Predict the 3D structure of the following.
Amino acid sequence: MQVNVDRESRTPLYLQIKNQIRQLILSHSLQPGYRLPPERKLAAALGVNRSTVVNAYRELEADGLIESHVGRGTMVNFIPGGEAGEELYLTLPPVWRNFYSSRAGRMNNPFISNILDMVAREDTISFALGVPAQEFHPVEYFSSIISGLMNKEGSALFEHGPTAGHYPLREYLAGYMAKRAIQAGPENIIILSGSQQGLDLAAKVFIEPGDAVVIEEHTYMGAIQVFAAAGARIFSVPMDEEGLQVDVLEQVLARYRPKFIYTQPTYQNPSGIAMSLARRRELLRLAYRFHVPVLEDDPYSELHYEGGFLPSLKSLDTSDHVIYLSTFSKVISPGLRLGWLAAPSDLARQLLMAKQLDDLHCNTLAQSVVNEFCRAGLLQAHLAMVREEYRKRRDAMLASLEEFAPPGLCWSRPAGGFHIWCSLPEGVHAGALLSRAVEKKVTFVPGDVFCANAGGTDRLRLSFSRCSETIIREGIRRFCTVLSKMINTGHGLDEAARQRQDLGQLF
Ligand SMILES: Cc1ncc(COP(=O)(O)O)c(C=O)c1O
């Protein structure tokens, strides 16, 4: 029996083994009654743990393909289902991964879905999800808007709508952006199924496999995943407290001529950094000089807790280089799945073609509800309320960190957005800390998921938006207790750091 493992692959080793044996059985290379090698022997031959082979065999057994008998070992089963061998083969389900495109192979990071699933665990305090608090969804307003709409428009709310989106909502957004000095007519605006769709459309329209794109050194993982799935070569530019380091950006632009620069200038996810005005201007100057479009992702700028409103890159852009993306997910509710983009007309037409293939158009009812909500002035009132509440939650998290943090933990003090970005004491690996924190029922997002390449293992993101001030204090207390224990016992610390610590204890 010929089985190999590929240690570079993202597919877990046990699955690689399982899939190959499965394939050998389904293609009749291994006949019913064939005795599989003992687990220990196969593990030694492949250089893997015995438990890896045990897991592979266990899954094959669960699929009914093999059976273990005490004393006789593990044997390939007779697979019922057909008279003749040939027909039997045809009636077996396909091994789906053999049919996948190479693009599918680049879409194998379940992190976002995992975080979304974590919300459901009630006994755990989650600082992992950076979205509005459930108690702030404007349920009563939505309820009366929906019943009003039903009376007024009835079945029309369940019809198809234009691909670019509900016209009154695009018109509203044009006026809303004009107040923020962004010049875009309804014809430049496309309503999206969340700004995530805007990232995907940009990837589809701009990126050929092998094309370069530039991102910030740590950034929204959904963007990294979309660009990676499109086959982009991703170049990360370091940031400091003023945002993207434009001197490094200049070198990257000169050397790699990327298709676009993806940036979140205002209250960046995960760092909370707000790019300075000087940097914004410099970034645009470089984009013009190297003729590189800028994809500006701006979900958080309305959520400011101190300081003034920062001008978007789009509002400073005098030469149509900026594609602007924003969303209702952070300022109203993420389940609406509504965002929008503003782009120069030619490009808007091309993005529209891509959207048409994606989903035809966004949900008609959701767009009408949000349009009514905004036009009734409720968005502004809602924003005033949530800014105040999130500011209190941010302050509660900062105060709790001050109270409980062990030495060596550093954190940002964001002026807006949902996230506090932490750097860990030397030697503490965020992934190892997370496993221990989950046991103590508190979660966060480790920093490496925000990095396209290596790095970020000594960082983590804490989101304060979804928990009350009391829960935040308890969650930070638990988090800091786990971290302190890890530092004091040395368990889970990097090997190098532990050795240094052991040495330190000798003197
Ligand atoms: C920077 C950034 N861009 C885009 C998104 C996706 O948002 P949406 O719900 O609008 O798809 C998020 C959500 O976390 C985000 O933080």
Summary: The two ends are 56 Å apart (CA to CA). Residues 130, 194-196, 220, 222, 264, 269, 297, 299, 327, 329, 334, 339 surround pyridoxal-5'-phosphate (CB under 6 Å). The CA atoms of residues 68 and 74 lie 4 Å apart. The longest helix spans residues 378-404.
